[in-house]
């Protein structure tokens, strides 16, 4: 998971993440990682439309968003 976050910082990839908050609620978010620390990371959250801080230990799943190009002929 940490490797995915590092790649996102380096290449500017957008990620889909399943996250459990401290109150136990689970949310699915689309994020772009801005900074990566030891136990947390800063990211732009497209759901909340703001920069947020997330705890790495609370991330349940994270995958890169794959954009497929369509060719019009």
Calculate Rg over CA atoms: 13 Å
CATH class: Mainly Beta
Number-wise, the strands total: 5
Record the strand order, biggest sheet.
4-3-2-1-5
Number of domains: 1
Structural class computed from helices and strand pairing: mainly beta
Largest sheet: 5 strands, antiparallel
Q: Report the order of strands and helices.
A: HEEEEE
User: Would you identify the regions where 5 or more consecutive residues have pLDDT less than 50?
Assistant: none
Give the topology.
Layout: H1 2-11, E1 14-20, E2 26-36, E3 40-45, E4 50-55, E5 59-64
Antiparallel strand pairs: 1-2, 1-5, 2-3, 3-4
Short summary of the structure?
By secondary structure, the protein is mostly beta strands.
């Amino acid at each position: 998971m940490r490797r995915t976050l590092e790649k996102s910082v380096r290449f500017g990839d957008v990620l889909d993440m399943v996250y459990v908050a401290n109150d136990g609620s689970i949310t699915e978010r689309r994020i772009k990682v801005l900074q990566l620390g030891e136990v947390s990371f800063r990211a732009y959250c497209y759901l909340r439309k703001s920069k947020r801080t997330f705890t790495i230990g609370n991330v349940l799943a994270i995958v890169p968003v794959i954009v497929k190009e369509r060719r019009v002929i």
